[in-house]
């Protein structure tokens, strides 16, 4: 019997590819040399990039790299969640962001769209427009 293959369609990119994408999108890097400079790698940058591309980024460096690029370390390591790293100011915000990351990971666009609509509605209610009667 052939092995069961789980849906990996959305995780085909490597951590190296995700790092390059995040550096391009979040920091404007155009080349591997730009990423080397962004990460502050002073020696053997080209060789290090070649190694990471073929072998993957060492787990011990994921958090450091994610912090310098400004991306989510979980997304960088294995594609979980969303690319951007966002900070929650309250426990409620953290819960919403966690839920949205789970929804984004599962590609439930309709659910994410609903959360955005509700959030926008709540934001409008929290800051009503002055109608001149108050």
Supply the key terms.
134 residues, mainly alpha, 434 Repressor (Amino-terminal Domain), 2 domains, 61% helix, elongated
Written account of the structure:
With 134 residues, the chain is an all-alpha fold. The chain folds into 2 domains: 1-80, lambda repressor-like DNA-binding domains (434 Repressor (Amino-terminal Domain), Orthogonal Bundle), CATH 1.10.260; 86-134. It is 61% helix and 0% strand. The protein contains 7 helices and no strands. The protein has helices spanning 15-27, 32-39, 45-55, 59-69, 73-78, 91-105, 109-126. The radius of gyration is 19 Å and the shape is elongated. The chain starts with 14 loop residues before the first helix and ends in an 8-residue tail after the last helix. Mean pLDDT is 78; it is low at 1-12.
Summarize the structure.
With 134 residues, the chain is mainly alpha-helical. It is built from seven helices and no strands.
- The CATH class of the largest domain is Mainly Alpha
Cα gyration radius (Å): 19 Å
Cα distance, first to last residue? 74 Å
Q: What about the largest sheet?
A: none
Helix/strand/pairing category: mainly alpha
Instruction: Give the topology string: H per helix, E per strand.
Output: HHHHHHH
> Any idea what the shape is?
elongated
CATH H-level homologous superfamily name of the largest domain = lambda repressor-like DNA-binding domains
Number of distinct beta strands: 0
Kindly report the CATH topology of the largest domain.
434 Repressor (Amino-terminal Domain)
Number of helical stretches of at least 4 residues: 7
CATH architecture name of the largest domain:
Orthogonal Bundle
β-strand amount: under 5%
Low-confidence stretches: 1-12
Number of structural units classed as domains: 2
